[in-house]
Amino acid sequence: MLYALIALSLAIVEYKIGLKNTSLTFITFWIINYLTNQAFGFFEFKAKRLDLAVLDTAIVALTSLLLIFVTLPYSVVGAVLLIPYVLWSTFATYLAWNIYLLNR
């Protein structure tokens, strides 16, 4: 469900103004967020680096929050659709931190 909301948010901006017409900041936050989101599984399960998994989820949470602010000028609805993602990524950071503490 979260990925559908994230994709819809980006699709709304694309539909309204086109991604070529957005700021470099907007694109940069999307790229950083996507790459760190995808890297979590590697850090947590493959590399078994729980410390990096915590850092990774914190970056995802921060960039998802920043995405709301950089999406607002282009689409209020697109920005609102990202709120569940911010909430989940913040909770995921809390979970990753506790998993790290339990396994130190």
Number of helices: 5
Oligomer: single chain
Q: Termini distance?
A: 32 Å
Largest sheet: none
**Gyration radius, to the nearest Å?**
15 Å
Percent of residues in beta strands?
A: under 5%
Mean pLDDT: 97
> Into how many domains do the coordinates divide?
1
Question: What is the β-strand count?
Answer: 0
Low-confidence stretches are none
The H-and-E topology, N to C, reads as: HHHHH
Helicity, in percent?
over 70%
> Could you say which overall geometry the principal axes of the C-alpha atoms support?
elongated
Structural class: mainly alpha
Protein model, in words:
This protein is an all-alpha fold. It has one domain (2-13, 23-102). Helix content is 82%, strand content 0%. It contains 5 helices and no strands. It is elongated. 28% of the residues are buried. The model has no long low-confidence stretch (mean pLDDT 97).
Task: Give the helix/strand layout.
Elements lengths: L1 H15 L7 H23 L3 H22 L4 H5 L2 H20 L2
